[in-house]
Amino acid sequence: MSPAPPALVTLPVTAPREEMFRIIKRDGGIIISDFLSPEDIKVFNATTGPMFAATKSTSQSEQRLVEMGPDFHASNTTHLRGMLGKCPELMIKVLQHPVWNALMHEVLKTEIKAYVGDHLLTTETTHILSLAVGFHVAPGANDQVLHRDQTIHSVDAKEGSLYTSDLGCLIAGTRSTKKNGATRVVPGSHLWSPNRAPKLEEAVSAEMEAGSAMFWFGSTYHGAGSNTCTPGEPDDVRVLYGVFGCQDFLRPEENQQLVCSEEIARTLPLDVLKVAGWTKGAGGCGFVNAQHPIVGLDFPQAKELMASA
């Protein structure tokens, strides 16, 4: 019998950042405990509860990401998409979180050097919000297929490479247990060749307490587990909040400028607007008339942006 794969390492939110960086680069994933406080989680769940209920009452047949295959989405799972536009106050809490930003930047940054005439230009890219979605996983939900998230960016994995186009983040709104379908992760698979297929016995369940957050490379194989709970038993429903990032020169998984209206965007803090892609990327992409979009659209935050340039 093969030995059981190692569980993902859990570190407190107060742990040194360098230790977080070391572990996630080694294992392809990490769990951060107490990422959000119990008070924050209560607000998240109270705010999204009615939204999940309203979403369940409508057909979700048109919400499937068909490009990932017909069986990509698990059953008995309600997706609350476009959370930046639907509950911006919750997303601000995450998008301003120092650990979220530190991990996103460390994993997704790239340094580019190229001559522009006689000048050697050095640019360090960073991250933007790729996806903000809630998950309500009820009893009876089946296993999700193991997959790599970076497939959505048409990025191929390279054996031994730490490059990835995106970084996943799942925040537990309730306890995540093996029984209620905690995400299955294959530690170390971010370093695998694209020719190596993941096996279910290589995956471990990322069990978390409410308020914890799991981060993982877009090249790490993972997939939701099955919820085998009986309706009504403790922790029978698993609620998660996914706040994913990608490199700032890539197209986000979810179009943030459409899911979040301009009216709402005008009320967001400047640092959140930057992460949400309302300013140019580090290399200059994403402009409107060669300007930051919020400058061209005369957002009130534009003066603050230009003053800090």
Could you explain how this protein is built, in words?
The protein is 25% helix and 20% strand. The chain is built from 10 helices and 12 strands. A 7-stranded mixed beta sheet has the order 1-2-10-7-12-6-3. Helix 1 (17-27) packs across helix 5 (98-108).
How would you summarize this macromolecular structure in one to three sentences?
The protein contains 10 helices and 12 strands. The protein is an alpha+beta fold and 309 residues long. A 7-stranded mixed sheet has the order 1-2-10-7-12-6-3. A 3-stranded antiparallel sheet has the order 9-8-11, with no helix packed on it. A two-stranded antiparallel sheet has the order 4-5.
Biggest sheet record: 7 strands, mixed
Beta fraction? 15-25%
Order of helices and strands: EHEHEHHHEEEEEEEEEHHHHH
Low-pLDDT windows of residues = none
Ends distance: 59 Å
Number of helices: 10
**Strand order in the sheet with the most strands:** 1-2-10-7-12-6-3
DSSP strand tally: 12
Shape estimate: globular
What gyration radius follows from the Cα positions, in whole Å?
Answer: 19 Å
Percent helix among the residues? 10-25%
Return the average pLDDT rounded to an integer. 93
Q: SS-based structural class?
A: alpha+beta
